[in-house]
Design a protein that fits this description.
By secondary structure, the chain is α/β, with parallel strands linked by helices. The protein has one domain: Rossmann fold. The chain is about 35% helix and about 25% strand. A five-stranded mixed barrel has the order 3-9-8-4-10. The protein has a two-stranded antiparallel sheet with strand order 5-6. β8, α4 and β9 form a beta-alpha-beta unit.
């Protein structure tokens, strides 16, 4: 099992739990390069992308909740206007969606439910800039199938895993609520829950 995390902030408490994790970098570019480099050397699965994320306003998620991605969207890719964002014309070959539905995801959900985590599963959105505006977060979620979680690496890692034909499981714990953009992030609490979930998956997956 290969566990990838974006930053050392996420890696350090997970390592203290005995989990072997590899840091791939924060944001779409570093995550793409970092995950490709790791997977090119190992070329074996399953692969887990683990980290923290922001919950969209109507997701129903709270601090510390666990969520799994069914699909990753690249939310920032398109044409930017002062009043909003639109996708590129259909004729342009701009990929912005990558499905993560596979038996590994279903098995992980069953394991976590059995252990009492009550995980949610649904669309995630990868962005280049963390959203601090409630109206923008609502628009992003609505445009991407009522997305649950905003992050900055998932789409990139999903593409890297696809290149090597490796199943990817993306699991995140909620560290902040996008409906409350000025509230402090509960990083320690989120990573505590994430570590517990990963230990369960390591044992059973």
């Amino acid at each position: 099992m290969t566990i990838l995390v974006p930053t050392e902030i996420e890696a350090s408490p997970l390592r203290k739990r005995g989990l072997n994790v590899q840091v791939i970098g924060m944001g779409p570019v570093e995550a793409a390069l970092g995950s490709y480099s790791v997977l090119a050397r190992q070329k074996e699965g399953p692969v887990i992308l683990a980290g923290i994320g922001g919950a969209y306003p109507k997701s129903g998620l709270q601090i510390g909740d666990i969520a799994l991605a069914s699909v990753e969207f690249f939310g920032d890719l398109g044409i930017c206007y002062a009043a909003g964002h639109q996708p590129f014309p259909e004729g342009l070959p701009a990929k912005k969606e990558c499905s993560l539905r596979h038996p590994l995801m279903e098995k992980a959900l069953a394991i976590l439910e059995e252990k009492g985590f009550s995980p949610e599963c649904g669309p995630f959105v990868t962005v280049c800039c963390a959203t601090r505006d409630v109206s923008r977060s609502e628009v992003l979620a609505l445009k991407h199938q009522n997305a649950l979680i905003e992050n900055m690496e998932g789409f990139s890692v999903a593409l890297a895993a696809k290149i090597f034909s490796l199943p990817l499981l993306e699991i995140r714990a909620v560290s902040n609520l996008l409906a409350e953009p000025e509230s402090p992030w509960a990083i320690e609490e989120a990573l505590e829950k994430l570590g517990e979930a990963l230990l369960c998956l390591k044992e059973k997956l």
